[in-house]
């Protein structure tokens, strides 16, 4: 992934999470994965278009998603109902939106599509052999893996 | 000696959502996210606003506005939505009612779409994450 | 390496009272054994041993544990127990013991956990309990319904002739050098061979440098020089730590690694590069670009030779720290060769390359062994990157180079590397190692 794209995603994740949650937010070491498969249980996906084609995926365990949705709504949510899903989608949307804004300031034209959310074990997201950048974020509530897979449009 | 009547009590501040005549401002919320709709609704109703309707895409939003007209004082409009996006919906509502007061809500910052909306006639915009103070301030500004 | 080490810590928080003996338990051919934890240094998994010729069959070889060379004993072979079928590339459980002043490793079927017991419950061994010779068993103890045979490691590992001992632990007594090695030795099992493979292993451990056909010629020459050098100065031949490995590798790197290319080097490269046939755009792949000095030097050089066509360079590295500074690289004029000055502009913090050059390069944080979506290229500039991949990945990369290079295209690799591939014609000149993809 293009070097200049990396920081905007890292910063946006950090900023948005710190703003909407009371948790301490710690960033883990970035690394590259050869496939872009989500693995933890709940994944929110936001498509990217413009100068690149690809998507950002927010991967987390079910318990983490529920804990986050509960705090963001100010009420205890114990199952991945519509409200919980809408909340996690919105979180993904905000982080990606802020990243896209920063990229715009750097001169890169990105656009984003409305988020989709998938849940369940053994999820499969079709992966056309595109490498993914993984930004692991540690919260008190659990870990979120931000998985960015984009390629330059020729 | 000053009496209690001379000091406006903080506890008796008039909630933002009420007009001079005591009636609540009426708001239509257009957003495809159940969470955001709930959030905005909570912020507004806690300040005395009256949420008179909500829609989950631009098309529905335009229809609802036409139905409720003229009993809507303000619309909050999400930019990224399926079927019809917020900017198109903005245009259509303004075509129908050029006095309509619309505030754009977006996860994107000073982006082309936001600029475009403002040029087309949106009164203001709010960038997510939403915080209560910011939301109320921008909405009040748009209502003036 | 070991997460079992963490488990041991947990287990040590025991709730049972009067535990005065703890042992690491493991299985061998279906039976459970234990070893006094005081004798255990570490638990690990390993898959690569260096075979030592002319040792006993139960000596599987030696293992490089962060610089310490340890003999690996396979207890199953030693006790003539049926061993589990070994699939060549799997990790095996091993326990590193420290006995007196040296370390030794034993390979077992499966390590279980740490068990704490009251030593009063240890019973003397009875031949009926074990498959192995009773003299090797210290005692027997039951715990939570399981029966453990406690091994007497000193007996097992000390019970050999003096000759054998020395051969198994060539490096374990620090003061020892040549004289310690007594005993008959066949001609081909010279200590030199062992040194050669130990150094090769150490380079892997310390510097991620993998000796293979690609660099063997250089390595063998360097090894001989190194041995002589160290022999003369009386220093240890073996690479004990990272600095030794770095010193060993110093002559490997191609000219101007990590800096801008000198004027003379650029002139020599230009002679070779000029033969590139290019109509429209010139597409280049630069894997392992590091901080970008090589990439910018290349971009400027190509611009000089081909001023008209648009140049596009994909510059990749999987070290994020290095490559993250590349797109906005700022430097002082004192490290810049004169001929490159024209391509730079003065910024407020120093010099940068101009827009034309910077627009020509796409720096990507990317692992070149992962899928690459870019099209076929005219030129691949991959100096010193093959040698830092595992042997398997080296082959994969060479195949990738072949696939991604247009016929007639050029491949540059490290000055001390070489490849043999039917589709590549060696057109190297002087110290510059370059190949042309044959047009068929």
Q: What strand line-up does the widest sheet of chain C have?
A: 15-12-11-16-17-19-18
First-residue to last-residue Cα separation of chain A: 14 Å
Instruction: Report the mean per-residue pLDDT of chain C as an integer.
Output: 83
Count every beta strand of chain A, where a strand is a DSSP E run of 2 or more residues.
8
CATH superfamily (homologous) name of chain A: CheC-like
Task: Give the quaternary arrangement of the chains.
Answer: heterotrimer
Radius of gyration of chain C: 28 Å
Largest interface: A-B, 22 and 18 residues
The ordered H/E elements of chain A are: HEEEEHHEEEE
Fraction of residues in β-strands of chain A: 25-35%
- Summing up helix and strand content along with how strands pair, one would put the structural category of chain A as alpha+beta
CATH superfamily of the largest domain in chain C: Vaccinia Virus protein VP39
Helix amount of chain A: 25-40%
Radius of gyration of chain A: 15 Å
CATH topology name of the largest domain in chain C, in short, is Rossmann fold
- At the first level of CATH, the class of chain A is Alpha Beta
- What is the tally of helical segments of chain A? 3
Provide a descriptive summary of the structure in words.
- The complex is a heterotrimer of chains A (154), B (144) and C (440).
- Chain A contains three helices and eight strands, in the order H-E-E-E-E-H-H-E-E-E-E.
- By secondary structure, chain A is an alpha+beta fold.
- In chain A, strands 1, 2, 3, 4, 5, 6, 7 and 8 form an eight-stranded antiparallel β-sheet that branches.
- By secondary structure, chain B is α/β, with parallel strands linked by helices.
- Helices cover 39% and strands 17% of the residues of chain B.
- Chain B has helices at 34-46, 58-68, 86-96, 112-120, 132-143, and strands at residues 26-30, 50-55, 74-78, 102-106, 124-127.
- Chain B has a five-stranded parallel β-sheet with strand order 2-1-3-4-5, sandwiched between helices.
- Chain C is of the alpha/beta class and 440 residues long.
- Chain C folds into three domains: 4-168, Beta Barrel (OB fold (Dihydrolipoamide Acetyltransferase, E2P)); 190-252, no CATH class; 263-437, Rossmann fold (3-Layer(aba) Sandwich).
- Chain C contains twelve helices and 19 strands.
- In chain C, the strands form four sheets. Chain C has a seven-stranded mixed β-sheet with strand order 15-12-11-16-17-19-18, with helices on both faces.
- The longest helix of chain C is centred in the middle third of the chain and has 18 residues, at 216-233.
- Chains A and B meet through helix 1 and helix 3 of A and helix 1 of B.
């Amino acid at each position: 992934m293009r070097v200049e794209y990396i920081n905007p995603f890292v910063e946006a994740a950090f900023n948005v999470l710190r703003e909407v949650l009371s948790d301490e937010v710690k960033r883990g070491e970035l690394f590259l994965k050869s496939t872009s498969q989500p693995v933890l249980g709940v994944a929110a996906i936001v498509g990217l278009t413009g100068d690149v084609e690809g998507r950002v995926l927010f991967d987390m365990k079910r318990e983490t998603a529920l804990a986050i949705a509960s705090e963001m709504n100010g009420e205890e949510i114990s199952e991945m109902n519509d409200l919980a899903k809408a909340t996690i989608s919105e979180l993904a949307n905000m982080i990606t939106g802020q990243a896209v804004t920063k990229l715009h300031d750097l001169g890169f034209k990105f656009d984003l599509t409305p988020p989709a959310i998938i849940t369940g074990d053994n999820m499969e997201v079709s992966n056309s052999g595109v490498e993914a950048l993984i930004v692991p974020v540690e919260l008190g509530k659990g870990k979120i893996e931000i998985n960015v897979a984009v390629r330059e449009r020729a | 000696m000053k009496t209690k009547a001379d000091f406006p009590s903080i506890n008796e501040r008039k909630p933002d959502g009420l007009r001079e005549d005591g009636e609540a401002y009426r708001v239509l919320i257009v957003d495809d996210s159940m969470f955001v709709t709930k959030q905005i609704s909570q912020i507004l109703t806690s300040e005395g606003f009256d949420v008179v309707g909500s829609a989950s895409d631009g098309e529905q939003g335009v229809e609802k506005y036409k139905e409720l007209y003229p009993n809507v004082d303000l619309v909050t409009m999400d930019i990224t939505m399926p079927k019809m996006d917020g900017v198109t919906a903005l245009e259509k509502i303004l075509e129908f009612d050029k006095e309509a007061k619309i505030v754009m809500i977006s996860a994107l910052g000073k982006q082309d779409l936001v600029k475009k909306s403002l040029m087309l006639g949106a009164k203001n915009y709010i960038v997510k994450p939403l915080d209560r103070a910011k939301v109320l301030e921008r909405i009040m500004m748009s209502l003036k | 390496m070991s997460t079992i080490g963490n488990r041991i810590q947990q287990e040590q928080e025991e709730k049972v009272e009067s535990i005065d003996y703890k042992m690491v338990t493991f299985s061998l051919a279906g039976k459970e054994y234990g070893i006094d934890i005081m004798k255990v240094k570490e638990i690990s998994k390993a898959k690569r041993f260096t075979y030592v010729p002319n040792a006993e069959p139960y000596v599987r070889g030696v293992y490089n544990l962060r610089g310490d060379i340890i003999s690996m004993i396979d207890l199953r072979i030693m006790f003539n127990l049926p061993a589990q079928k070994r699939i060549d590339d799997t990790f095996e459980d091993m326990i590193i013991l420290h006995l007196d002043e040296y370390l030794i490793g034993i390979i077992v079927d499966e390590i279980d956990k740490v068990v704490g017991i009251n030593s009063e419950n240890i019973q003397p061994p009875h031949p009926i309990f074990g498959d192995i010779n009773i003299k090797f068993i210290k005692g027997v103890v039951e715990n939570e319904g399981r029966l453990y045979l406690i091994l007497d490691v000193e007996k097992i590992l000390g019970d050999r002739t003096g000759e054998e001992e020395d051969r198994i632990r060539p490096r374990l007594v620090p003061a020892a050098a040549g004289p310690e090695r007594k005993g008959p030795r066949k001609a081909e099992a010279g200590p030199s061979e062992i040194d050669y493979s130990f150094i090769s292993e150490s380079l892997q451990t310390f510097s991620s440098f993998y000796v293979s056909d690609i660099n063997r010629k250089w390595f063998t020459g360097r090894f001989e020089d190194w041995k002589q050098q160290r022999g003369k100065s009386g220093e240890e031949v073996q690479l004990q730590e990272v600095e030794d490995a770095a010193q060993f590798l110093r002559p490997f790197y191609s000219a101007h690694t990590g800096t801008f290319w000198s004027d003379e080097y650029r002139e020599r490269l230009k002679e070779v590069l000029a033969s590139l046939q290019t109509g429209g755009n010139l597409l280049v792949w630069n894997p392992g670009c590091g901080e970008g000095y090589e990439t910018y030097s290349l971009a400027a050089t190509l611009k000089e030779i081909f001023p008209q066509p648009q140049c596009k360079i994909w510059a990749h590295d999987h070290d994020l720290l290095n490559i993250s500074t590349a797109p906005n690289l700022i430097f002082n004029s004192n490290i810049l060769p004169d001929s490159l000055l024209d391509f730079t502009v003065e910024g407020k913090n120093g010099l940068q390359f101009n827009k034309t050059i910077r627009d020509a390069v796409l720096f990507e944080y990317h692992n070149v062994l992962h899928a690459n979506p870019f099209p076929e290229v005219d030129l691949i500039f991959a100096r010193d990157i093959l040698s830092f991949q595992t042997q398997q990945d080296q082959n994969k990369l060479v195949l990738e180079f072949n696939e991604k290079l247009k016929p007639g295209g050029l491949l540059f690799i490290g000055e001390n590397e070489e490849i043999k591939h039917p589709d590549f014609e060696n057109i190297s000149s002087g110290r510059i190692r370059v190949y042309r993809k044959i047009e068929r």
